[in-house]
Amino acid sequence: MGLYRERDVSLLELLRLRKEARERVRGFFEGRGFLEVDTPIMVPYENPDDNVENVRAVFRDFLGKRYEWFLHTSPEFFMKRIVWEMREGGIYQIVRVFRDGEITDLHSIEFTMIEWYRVGGDYRDGMKETFGLVREVVGDFANVKGRKITLNGYEIFTVEEAFREFAGVNVFDREEVKKVACEEDYESGFFKLLVERVEPALGKIDKPVFLIDYPEEFSAMARVKNGVAERFELYVGGVEIANGYTELRDYESYLRKFEEKGKKAVDGGFLSLLKKRLLPECEGVALGFDRLLMLRLGAESIHDVIPYSTKRLLEETISNL
């Protein structure tokens, strides 16, 4: 039985549903032998992704010295420190994360993420786990803006297939993408076509859709083979729910990724481990817990499933001025 409901819920009902969903997530991972872990929320390193910005955190030590750190956007790199110690098995975490400048119906400055890593797996294993977790929490059907999306299976499109079918371009032809999108650089052209053509088309499919195998420019921390990143994103009714990779393993790759963002993104502690030996072969996935709640309740805004969301508190403070 799923937890899907076609009605509004009170605050207390929402809190009970969130608790039950967390219990289902824990049951899913504990039943597969994963260990629940804790990592720091306030960290000295900036997120290396140019498309994600940290919320800054200022504090002082007992001598009054001032430090400017960051609230984490993901527990990724501290979880990878734990993975580095492992030879088998998996770890997971249900954790609050923070991303600056992100307030929309699908984004909140503060939200809850489920993140997990498994030694010995790759991104295709992560896809199976992701779909299993969505079914465990949401049930047989998801509700997206009044549409029921069946969760008895899923479709897979490579990025190349999706862009050919829905945007009419060869995504690996950089010049063609720029020309069709009327953009001067490839990255802008890619995301314009993704948002304006590909994602709306995926949203019309009445099954979950995995979009896989990205051009290397959009590899993030995924392993790249022959110019293709072993990465997936899961869409349900056109809404992105999860992002997963076959993870990078070596010191040089991570150092390059960190340095591209700047000095504050260079995670010295993690790099010091990779100097000793490679990260074990592993897969990792990040999934939006609050977006799962949206699918269960049919909510059109993420702020309707987060008690006292940043947006709601901003509205409260502005109304009190």
Walk me through what this model shows:
- Residues 15-307 form the Aminoacyl-transfer RNA synthetases class-II family profile domain.
- It comes from Desulfurobacterium pacificum.
- By secondary structure, this protein is α+β, with helices and mostly antiparallel strands.
- The chain has a domain at 11-149 and 282-319: BirA Bifunctional Protein, domain 2, CATH 3.30.930.10.
- 37% of the residues lie in helices and 25% in strands.
- It contains ten helices and 14 strands.
- The strands form three sheets. Strands 1, 5, 6, 9, 10, 11, 12, 13 and 14 form a nine-stranded mixed sheet that branches.
- Helix 1 (11-30) crosses helix 3 and helix 5 (174-181) crosses helix 6 (186-203).
- The protein is globular, with a radius of gyration of 20 Å.
- The termini are far apart.
- The model is unreliable at 1-6 (pLDDT under 50).
Proportion of β residues? 25-35%
Report the CATH architecture of the domain at 11-149 and 282-319.
2-Layer Sandwich
CATH hierarchy class name of the domain at 11-149 and 282-319: Alpha Beta
Mean pLDDT: 94
Helix content: 25-40%
Tell me the overall shape.
globular
The low-confidence parts are 1-6
Radius of gyration: 20 Å
Per DSSP, the total helix count is: 10
First-residue to last-residue Cα separation = 46 Å
Which homologous superfamily in CATH is the superfamily of the domain at 11-149 and 282-319? Bira Bifunctional Protein, Domain 2
Described by strand count, sense and barrel closure, the largest sheet is: 9 strands, mixed
Query: What is the total tally of β strands?
Result: 14
Summarize the helix and strand pattern as letters: HEEEEHEEHEEEHHHEEEEHHEHH
Structural class: alpha+beta
* CATH fold-level topology of the domain at 11-149 and 282-319: BirA Bifunctional Protein, domain 2
Keywords: ATP-binding, Ligase, Nucleotide-binding
Protein name: Lysyl-tRNA synthetase, class 2
InterPro entries: Aa-tRNA-synt_II (IPR004364), aa-tRNA-synth_II (IPR006195), aa-tRNA-synth_II/BPL/LPL (IPR045864)
Domain Aminoacyl-transfer RNA synthetases class-II family profile: 15-307
